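Q: what sequence does this backbone want?
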């Protein structure tokens, strides 16, 4: 006799295992950074074009701290891949801003409801940059 797990239970188990895996991955990255000297953290941050404070904040918030940013870009008809390719520093700065955002729930809800394009300027720390990117036809998603 074969024991089978109902699909909803299987999905829940897979989700829990995924959370644990992400937690271990995140803990591992934090541990690695914690094992570095201040000078090494400073050098690593400089290599990334960040302050050491930004780097530490990102590691604490990562790995999915800026997932909303590409979704917001697509909602605004901006091609995230094109921005990353053409404007790598701008893209990275936007990721840092998004990762440190305190309006994640609002952002996610508005993206999900399809109203982010109308409301993002009210809460998004990247609003000015996003509006500037929307003005560049080379960065827009081709219809």
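A:
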């Amino acid at each position: 006799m074969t024991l089978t797990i109902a699909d909803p239970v299987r999905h829940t188990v897979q989700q829990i295992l995924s959370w644990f895996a992400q937690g271990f991955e995140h803990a591992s990255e934090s541990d690695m950074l914690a094992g570095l000297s201040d000078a090494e953290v400073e050098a690593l941050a400089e290599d990334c074009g960040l302050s050491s404070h930004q780097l530490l904040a990102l590691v604490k918030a990562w790995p999915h701290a800026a997932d909303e940013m590409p979704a917001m870009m697509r909602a605004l008809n901006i091609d995230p891949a094109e921005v990353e390719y053409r404007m790598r520093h701008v893209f990275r700065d936007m990721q840092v801003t998004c990762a440190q955002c305190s309006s994640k729930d609002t952002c996610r809800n508005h993206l999900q409801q399809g109203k982010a394009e109308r409301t993002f300027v009210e809460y998004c720390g990247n609003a000015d940059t996003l509006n500037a990117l929307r003005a560049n036809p080379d960065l827009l998603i081709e219809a």
